[in-house]
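G.,

No rush on this.
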Amino acid sequence: QVQLVESGGGLVQAGGSLRLSCAASGRTRNSYAMGWFRQAPGKEREFVAAISWSGSVTYYADSVKGRFTISRDNAKNTVYLQMTSLRPEDTAVYFCAAGPSTLRLRNKQIDSWGQGTQVTASS
């Protein structure tokens, strides 16, 4: 089973940018869809973005469309989330995830989770 490790979280002012990275290791398949979820205090974990293995299919939550971009580098077994125009409501722990398809990933059918990385956007 694939192991996922996130990095790149931090504290930024509202309107700023961050790029999250998720490195996959340990029995990595070359057919995994990957994506990002987030969980704010007092809220349920919610879908943010997903990308197919080839990178040809992407999905975004309505709340982040136009601001966040998901990408992947299969040679490095890494998926990225470029976040721009960050808002206070984006503050959450962000989790990397892997699953068999983007659709199933959107529906929280997850094979592996990362440990999470904190993103804080302050006003």
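When you get to it, here's the other one too:
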Amino acid sequence: QVRLVESGGGLVQAGGFLRLSCAASGRTFSSYAMGWFRQAPGKEREFVASVNWSGGSTYYADSVKGRFAISRDKVSNTVYLQMNSLKPEDTAVYYCAARFLVAKEYNYWGQGTQVTVSS
């Protein structure tokens, strides 16, 4: 079955960078969109970025556009989130997710990885 495993989180100073990885397994993802979401303490989960597995088109939340970059490696079945110029407000648990391209909901989720940005 579908399994999404995030890694790469950690503690970084403001202005620094991290690259999150999401190892995807269990099926062919050619008809899927892959997304990154985050949830900060006391806040609702929010969308960060998405990429279509097949075509590679991307979409970003305004809050991260220009700083973050999502990509996928079809060979390794890995989705990445390169996070640059990190801010304290980027602190959150980051989740990898997947959905059918024709679906509105992300129905597969990873366990999350903590990103903490210190000032």
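The mean pLDDT is 97. The radius of gyration is 13 Å.

Enjoy the weekend,
O.
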